[in-house]
Design goal:
The complex is a heterodimer of chains A (872) and B (672). Chain A is α/β, with parallel strands linked by helices and 872 residues long. In chain A, strand 3 and strand 4 form a beta hairpin. In chain A, helix 10 packs antiparallel against helix 11, helix 28 crosses helix 29 and helix 30 packs across helix 32. With 672 residues, chain B is mainly alpha-helical. Chain B has 30 helices and two strands. A two-stranded antiparallel ribbon of chain B has the order 1-2. The two termini of chain B are 35 Å apart. Classes of the chains: A alpha/beta (872), B mainly alpha (672). Chains A and B meet through helix 6, helix 9, helix 10, helix 21 and helix 22 of A and helix 3, helix 6, helix 11, helix 14 and helix 15 of B.
């Protein structure tokens, strides 16, 4: 250990800290949160980060060429944008260069195999000389082939003559899965140990059978006893002759199953992410894994030779022929004859990646161009209903924005606003029937308050129909023990046929039956307190009136709702309802950390109705008229159903108006559902609102529907500004909308706080879709069809699989990977200052992970941000 | 009388319409259309057939119920091959089979209906429906078979569709491994069924075994058979049951096979395929129930499976694995019930379990929401859990119990050490021998590596060349005992060498073909052999030609890694699969029937021939499916789209036509 190649001594925890940022940070799947999957590379410019990540994770950096070519054929990529992208990516000298590039864009093929090239060359005898010429021309170019070093695990497998991962990973995943299990396992034996390592040690010490067929329990126990670093060094020393290899190996070992490593890392950072707390960390996982590997090696080969640097160098020296050369040769050979002249400089720059990059840029710019057109198009201004009859505040979510647009079309006397769906109520929430705390605010905020739910009146009907529910539970998940299984095969088994048939033919009936069974329980929320003594789990229960007033004031001010209040102001959170869908949280509100925003809307309405709070807000400068009433509600984005809260507490004379508004809402639901259904290929293009709503409800309730809704598919625009700029303009369900009145915010402080929520939330959603679409198997979680819920924390495919993070194909397949464009109605200088004020946001903008543009009310021209924040 | 006619007709419709739908769907490959169009056409076709199957099953059931028939039986076809061999394909149905037919039609029809939405936009949309149609045909064949011949055919079809659907996501190495594991287990166990088929032929010649067992006083039928033969027959029946229903000690493959789409797992490992074994046992109950002492074996296996699988289910922390083991445990209990002679109870248990597990697997993704929303219920349920199995074991044994369970009882490791390792060891040795000889002789080397398919049959292996001058002549003309044994030995060696092949898929394919060829020639030079010979040659030709076609366009560097060539060669891959299946004797090739006949002939020669012969068949089958999986399946390559290297549809059609014409002509020549 003293003879280290490094200057500092080896330290396992430091190594882990170095690797941990590379691992996915997705929490257990019930709290699925949209986030920038490549957050770790945010300090690099976006395109560099793509290439870097592609190398690190063996993913693809861009979409396939065929995808872009199809999009060009569709018209999604314009010729103009393509020409611009070519100019910015290649050094073009004359028109012939341009023609060559054009040919490359449409006809370049990636050929990875020499046989394929030879076959293509032989196909026509007239091709022979052209191929000879092409090969000669390609030989002129410098050799760009890179030597790919073999992985250390590959070298180990070579000596073992078997793949080391299969056997060890299966056992490791089972052990970890059993340890962190949250309720799948029928006999959670490992639950009782205080840490993962002690659980494994206990098994090794007390089991009379081998931990695996290749493990000698006593040796294994020795290997994993003692301090982390000592254990690790002890094990690594046997595997590798050279300490310089340790670091690479640890990295390789953890990144080999990023899903489980990431989950372990997330849990070790914050045990609270699991309802049943468990202690496990990357170090113990690595030690157990390596110890198991060592046991396997010992079992397989008696003459194990530790791997040295020489072995690695030797293996590296075997160079493979360069596939990009094949592609280039074929391209040259298929080039029209008159273009075939030596142009080394240009040919050097033509490669799969450079072409893909050009296409990607063209795709983005085509979209941005179309956005600019939409903005500049003159349309009818906002119909003047000052003050409007109704006002409605929606989440800035793209789905909510489209819904709001439909509402405005159906009911012109309504004015709508957009605001992050937590409505400035950053809190934890504790439901009355559940011990777990739910975080209801953007992920990067750390709330200090908790909102509690209480049942009004006495606790009648505490457990409704326990027998029926128990039977339904057993039929679903309980009948896996031998006795219960035996009993249920004779009873529930035959009944489950009818359940299946029913849910197949009449999913809606089941929903209605369930709604009948579970009658609404009236609850109230505790969100205000007079003294700060009331605590729950280190959190303050509720807010003071001052805190509430401040939150209300900031919210109203930043969305520009400071005067002209309507008689009724609605506040809509949103959630989604789907069945048989482990990714349900991905459809909920991104600004509420992947939970429905109903509670926040409810609290917001209640606080805005409180006279005490209004008085304080009035002191700050916003006068809410006496007769204005706030009503909370929740929009279900899957079924397009809207629910209103606490109607019983409203003054009675207002109810007819609420009913009138609810009428408008149901019409808007219909037209919104029609628009949504157009994206579902199965539905006929000419659907009536009624059938569209039925289809939407069917999707929410059908057991076998992998696409309950399409989520944020194609969300690539965020507009921050006044409604008048976009009133009744069609953004095709692709835009987030945040209300913002730049006239009230000359110094950009409000904008700064808006961006602080909007960039991580909207940018996170956009980039989550972007990367999951880019490489569904690596950044995304692949297809939903074969998912298997593991330990209630994630999904894998089949048994003993790595956990899959990211979004499933079924959510992203229609998404175009385009970075978010944030259009702000404000001066560029103010925008820059606002971004610079938030150090966390600077890399997002500076490195172009989101694009920012400004627009003004006068000329309605979208201008991309000229300079980047942070001086450059 | 008309009613009986309708009953028969509807049974036949239920049996054959899935086959038609599979064929019609395959034909859509020759008309390229947009994915949207394709989904529409596929779904309409399948909806029609799904309804047809379901309605004919319902009609059949109610007619049978109304007619108060005990059973029905009619013959489909009758072949006489050679002097003393004839086969009759018979359909047999009684209440049991009609209820099971109804169950299977219900479940498959339901799955077909909702797959339209479930699989929407999936690249394997059509492939799924073809395979599921094939599966429905297979399972209906098992249900309605009147003798072991048809059951065996159905059994093989179910096994193949199982393999194809586990490997549905063919670019995931884990899925392919699971698919191969399942196929290997099936293949080995299926030969038990083949053996029982032979034994029944041997004793009862051309009878419809099931109807006669029910109809006649089975004691008179069975009394001719000595008890040791009865034992052998019973064990041969049990073996495929252990394989298909994943019973002790073969429990390990089934939960790992949950790699395909959830609903295909639900059909196969939740409801239908897993219970096929129980159905077979119920069907053959008169045979094994009258074998003294066999009940105890069955009871032992049932109880051992039930206990061990439910222990394994205890520690599974993923939902599908848990359901899989729970289902296996219930099947174990069914076996126990059968051993007590309670066939009706076992049958009710079977149907209930089929629906229950199907439902459970289909809704398995909802476990998260259930846990979030049903907290009260879960509390109650956890109180119930106190009465679970581990509580009956002393606490100090818990660590051992846990480790035992998490390793699935080490069954797989033990079986591997006992049976697989020695075979692989032999395979490596024989492969080395064959390959060294190839390398030594440049002439032979050039022949074996010959690129053109016309050389294929002369470019065999060096041993084949040598033998083709002397030994083959002897085999064809005289069939002397020494040469016969010698060539059987060569066949043995070649097939093992094929199994051990790690470099060249083409060489492996040839080795396996010649292994089979020598095995054939060592048995017979008579006319029935033609059925097998022509089928084998046609299939091998199609397979080798397709593989050559691919090799010309892509390098296949070795057989140690997966190469995922299905991505570029879907049609060539399908043709290759067809050829490979022909070589391994799949029911749509004449080799299947030829194999049947050959084995009949071997019984006359002696049991040692039978064993070696079966061994060669198993080994060749395993080797070929392994090559196929390695070459065609595996990780997706980055991008080749736009480069059309595959067969044109008409090219593929010609190969398929050659395949079927060759097999048909085999029948024609052998039967004339």
């Amino acid at each position: 250990m003293t003879a280290h190649a490094h200057d500092e001594p080896f330290c396992l925890t430091c190594e882990m800290a170095r690797i941990a940022p590379l691992l996915p940070r997705q929490p257990p799947i019930k709290d699925f949160i949209h986030q920038n999957i490549l957050q770790v590379f945010i300090d690099q410019p976006f395109d560099n980060a793509l290439l870097h990540a592609a190398k690190t994770f063996k993913a693809r950096p861009y979409m396939d060429l065929t995808y872009y070519r199809d999009r060009f054929a569709d018209g999604a990529i314009t010729e103009q944008a393509l020409a611009l992208a070519v100019k910015s990516n290649f050094a073009v000298e004359d028109d012939d260069d341009l023609r060559v590039l054009n040919h490359a864009l449409f006809h370049y093929l990636a050929i990875f195999d020499e046989t394929t090239l030879q076959f293509l060359a032989k196909q026509k005898s007239s091709n022979r000389d052209r191929f000879a010429l092409a090969i000669a021309a390609a030989n002129e170019l410098p050799d760009s082939s890179t030597k790919e070093a073999p992985t250390l695990r590959h070298l180990i497998s070579l000596q073992l003559n078997t793949k080391i991962d299969h056997v060890v990973n299966a056992l490791l995943f089972r052990l970890i899965g059993s340890y962190i299990d949250q309720g799948v396992s029928l006999w959670p034996y490992l639950d009782r140990f205080d840490s993962f390592l002690s659980a494994v040690r206990h098994l090794a010490a007390h089991s009379h059978v081998r931990l695996a067929y290749f493990v000698r329990n006593a040796d294994f126990l020795d290997d994993i006893s003692g301090p982390y670093t000592a254990c690790a060094v002890n094990l690594l020393k046997r595997l590798f002759a050279d300490p310089a290899l340790y670091q690479d190996y640890i990295r390789e070992s953890l990144l080999h199953h990023p899903g489980w490593s990431g989950m372990v890392n997330v849990i070790s950072r914050d045990a609270k992410v699991l309802p049943k707390k468990q202690r496990i960390d990357l170090e113990s996982m690595f030690i157990v894994k390596t110890a198991l590997e060592w046991q396997l090696i010992k079992h397989r080969v008696s003459t194990w030779k530790p791997i040295s640097l020489d072995d690695v160098a030797h293996a590296t020296s075997q160079r493979e022929s360069d596939p990009s050369r094949f592609s280039l040769i074929y391209f040259l050979a298929t080039l029209p004859r008159h273009l075939f002249t030596p142009r080394t400089a240009l040919l050097k720059s033509i490669s799969l990646v450079s072409l893909q990059k050009t296409w990607a840029e063209a795709l983005e710019n085509s979209y941005y161009g179309s956005v600019a057109e939409t903005f500049s198009a003159r349309k009818e201004g906002l119909a003047d209903h000052r003050p409007p009859k109704f006002q409605a505040i929606f989440c800035l979510d793209d789905r909510e924005f489209s819904f709001a647009t439909h509402l405005e079309k159906e009911s012109p006397e309504t004015e709508t606003f957009g605001f992050p769906g937590f409505f400035n109520i950053d809190c934890f929430f504790r439901p009355y029937n559940n011990q777990a705390l739910l975080k209801l605010c953007p992920v990067h905020l750390e709330p200090k308050h908790v909102v509690m739910e209480e049942i009004k009146g006495k606790k009648k009907r505490r457990e409704q129909r326990p027998v029926l529910e128990l039977a339904s539970f057993i039929a679903r998940h309980g009948a896996n023990s031998i006795v219960l299984g035996f009993v249920s095969a004779y009873t529930l088994g035959h009944l489950s046929l009818f359940r299946l048939l029913l849910s197949f033919f009449h999913p809606l009936k089941i929903m209605q039956a369930k709604q009948l069974m579970a009658k609404e329980e009236t609850t109230s929320l505790v969100f205000q307190h007079s003294d700060a003594s009331s605590r729950f789990d280190d959190l303050i229960v509720g807010y003071t009136a001052d805190e509430l007033a401040e939150r209300l004031f900031t919210a109203l001010r930043s969305m520009g709702l400071t005067k002209d209040f309507a008689r009724l102001v609605f506040v809509f959170g949103h959630g989604s309802s789907s069945v048989n869908n482990p990714h349900f949280a991905a459809y909920d509100c991104g600004a509420c950390a992947g939970k429905p925003g109903a509670i926040n809307a409810r609290v917001f309405a209640a606080m805005a109705n409180s006279q005490e709070v209004r008085a304080r807000v009035q002191e700050m400068g916003i006068v809410i008229p006496h007769n204005t009433v706030f009503v909370g509600g929740c929009h279900d984005t899957t079924t397009d159903h809207v629910e209103f809260f606490d109607l019983a507490q409203l003054p009675e004379e207002i109810l007819p108006q609420v009913l009138e508004f609810s009428d408008h809402i149901s019409r808007a639901s219909g037209t919104n559902a029609v628009e949504r259904c157009r994206a579902f290929a199965i539905v006929a293009p000419s659907t009536s609102p009624k059938t569209a709503l039925l289809e939407a409800q069917h999707r929410a309730r059908a057991l076998f529907e992998p696409r309950p809704e399409l989520g944020h598919t194609n969300a690539s625009l965020c507009f921050i500004g006044r409604k008048s700029l976009i009133y009744q303009k069609d953004f095709q369900r692709r835009a987030f909308y945040q209300s913002y009145d730049s006239t009230l915010d000359r110094d950009g402080r409000t904008l700064s706080s808006i961006l602080n929520a909007a960039i991580p939330v909207c940018g996170g959603i956009n980039l989550d879709y972007y990367f999951s679409r880019l490489d569904p198997a690596i950044y995304g979680c692949g297809t939903k069809l074969s998912h298997n819920v593991c330990s209630l924390v994630g999904v894998g495919n089949g048994l003993d699989d790595d956990l899959r993070t990211g979004l499933p194909i079924q959510m992203t397949e229609l998404h175009d990977p385009i970075r978010l464009l944030i259009v702000i109605e404000q001066d560029q200088d103010v925008i820059l200052a606002a971004i610079a004020a938030q150090p966390d946001l600077t890399p997002w903008v500076k490195n172009a992970w989101v694009k920012i543009a400004s627009i003004s009310d006068q000329d309605r021209q979208v201008r991309m941000l000229q300079r980047s924040p942070g001086g450059r | 009388m008309i009613a009986v006619g309708i009953l028969r007709a509807s049974v036949m419709i239920a049996l054959l319409s899935p086959l038609f739908s599979a064929i019609l769907l395959s034909l859509t490959y020759f008309k390229t259309s947009s994915p949207k169009q394709l989904e529409k056409v596929t779904y309409r076709l399948l909806r029609f057939f799904g309804l047809l199957i379901l309605s004919s099953a319902i009609v059949a059931f109610f007619l049978w119920y109304g007619l108060h028939l005990a059973y029905g039986s009619f013959s489909l076809a009758h072949f006489t091959i050679g002097p003393d061999f004839s086969v009759t394909f018979r359909i047999f149905f009684d209440g049991l089979s009609l209820i099971f037919l109804l169950t299977s039609s219900l479940i498959t029809a339901m799955v077909i209906f909702f797959s339209h939405r479930y699989l929407h936009r999936d690249p394997g949309y059509r492939r799924f429906f073809i395979v599921i149609s094939l599966f429905t045909f297979g399972i209906n064949l098992i249900i309605l078979a009147g003798s072991f011949d048809l059951i065996f055919a159905g059994w093989e079809i179910v096994g193949l569709s199982s393999y194809l659907l586990i490997g549905y996501f063919w670019h995931r190495p884990k899925a392919i491994a699971a698919a191969c594991r399942a196929y290997y287990v099936y293949r080995v166990c299926d030969l038990g069924l083949l053996a029982s088929l032979l034994i029944t032929h041997f004793f009862w010649h051309d009878i419809s075994i099931f109807s006669d067992l029910v109809n006649l006083n089975h004691h008179t039928v069975l009394s001719e058979v000595s008890s040791s033969w009865k034992w052998l027959l019973s064990v041969c029946i049990l073996l495929p049951v252990l394989g298909k229903s994943a019973q002790f000690p073969l429990c390990f493959w089934l939960p790992k096979a949950m790699e395909g789409p959830t609903h295909s797992s639900a059909i196969f490992y939740g409801s239908l395929s897993i219970h096929a074994g129980v159905f077979l046992l119920i069907r053959t109950m008169p045979i094994w129930h009258n074998t003294p002492g066999f009940d105890y074996l069955l009871a032992f296996i049932g109880i051992t499976t039930a206990v061990s699988a439910s222990i394994f289910a205890l520690v599974q922390s993923n939902i599908k694995g848990q359901i899989g083991y729970a289902s296996i445990a219930q099947v174990g209990l069914m076996l126990f019930e059968l051993s007590l002679g309670w066939s009706t109870i076992a049958f009710i248990h079977m149907i209930g379990n089929a629906f229950l597990r199907c439902f459970q697997l289909l809704v398995s993704s909802s476990i998260l929401t259930t846990h979030l929303h049903m907290q009260n219920v879960i509390k109650t349920w956890q109180r119930l859990k106190k009465f679970s199995l581990p509580e009956m074991v002393p606490k100090r044994l818990w660590p051992s119990l846990f480790v035992f369970a998490i390793n699935e009882g080490f069954f797989e490791a033990i079986l591997k050490t006992l049976f697989v390792r020695p075979v692989l060891f032999l395979a490596d040795i024989f492969n080395a021998i064959v390959n060294v000889k190839i390398r030594r002789s440049p002439v032979i080397h050039r022949l074996v590596e010959a690129p053109r398919p016309s050389f294929v049959f002369f470019s065999l292996s060096p041993l084949a060349i040598v033998l083709s001058f002397g030994v083959l002549l002897d085999l064809l003309l005289r069939q002397s005992e020494v040469v016969r044994l010698f060539s059987l030995g060569i066949a043995f060696m070649l097939s093992l060498a094929a199994l051990g092949e790690k470099e060249n898929a083409l060489r492996g394919l040839k080795l396996a073909t010649f292994g089979n060829l020598f095995a054939l020639l060592s048995i017979t030079n008579s006319k029935p052999g033609l059925l097998y010979l022509i089928g084998l040659i046609t299939s091998a030709f199609v397979a080798i030609e397709a593989l050559q076609f691919i090799r010309k366009r892509r390098t296949i560097p070795d057989l140690k890694n997966h190469h995922g060539l299905y991505q570029q060669f879907p049609l060539a891959g399908t043709v290759l699969l067809l050829g490979v299946l022909g070589v391994v004797s799949f029911p749509f090739a004449s080799t299947f029937y030829g194999e049947d006949i050959l084995l009949n002939l071997t019984i006359g020669l002696g049991v040692h021939y039978l064993i070696i012969f079966q061994f060669i068949f198993i080994v060749c089958g395993l080797a070929l499916i392994r090559f196929y999986s390695l070459v065609m399946f595996g990780k997706r390559n980055n991008e080749i789209k736009g480069l059309d290297l595959d067969f044109r549809p008409w090219q593929a059609l010609i190969r398929v036509a050659i395949f079927f014409l060759g097999n048909a002509s085999a029948f024609f020549l052998a039967l004339s």
